[in-house]
Amino acid sequence: MTHMNPTAIFWPMNFHVLLVFGIYVLISVRRKKAIAAGSARASQFRENQVEPPESLFVRNNLNNQFELPILFHIGCLALFLTGNVGFVAVALAWVFTLSRYVHSYIHVTSNRIRYRQPAFILGFLALGLMWLVLALGLL
């Protein structure tokens, strides 16, 4: 396994975190627009049971960032802690992160499954391969 600076694994993680913060900003903007347009009331976000159409896709995407990406962050930390950060692991981490950006963009705009699903699958496979790299590195 080709080793590199092990801290390189943290850059894709940082870029994913940046995406999550961006989605939080976007949901805030979309919710404020919904309130201004009269399709939502500020009080309805207290219990967050009804999301206006303007921000529904964004809320769903935000939820997605705390599903599969949890395994990504844990995997990156495990690779770092076990000394298994190499070129392949870092490349797979970047593929995962970039696929999340593409997936998110599609999700919060057109939300076309036809386009969103391949981005998800790419990230899913990259993440699975990251965990395989970790498992093989532990042998």
Radius of gyration equals: 18 Å
Structural class: mainly alpha
CATH architecture: Up-down Bundle
- SS elements, strand count: 0
So, the CATH homologous superfamily?
Membrane associated eicosanoid/glutathione metabolism-like domain
Structural shape = elongated
DSSP helix fraction: over 70%
Give the tally of structural domains. 1
Order of helices and strands: HHHHH
Mean of all residue-level pLDDT scores: 95
- CATH fold label: Four Helix Bundle (Hemerythrin (Met), subunit A)
Query: In terms of per-residue confidence, which ranges show pLDDT below 50 for 5 or more consecutive residues?
Result: none
CATH top level assignment: Mainly Alpha
Q: Which quaternary structure do these chains form?
A: single chain
Strand content: under 5%
Based on the model shown, name its key terms.
Four Helix Bundle (Hemerythrin (Met), subunit A), mainly alpha
Characterization of the model:
The chain is mainly alpha-helical and 139 residues long. The protein has one domain (6-38, 52-138): Membrane associated eicosanoid/glutathione metabolism-like domain (Four Helix Bundle (Hemerythrin (Met), subunit A), Up-down Bundle). It contains five helices and no strands. The protein has helices spanning 10-37, 53-64, 68-81, 87-108, 113-138. Helix 1 runs antiparallel to helix 2 (53-64) and helix 1 (10-37) runs parallel beside helix 4 (87-108).
Brief summary:
It is built from five helices and no strands.
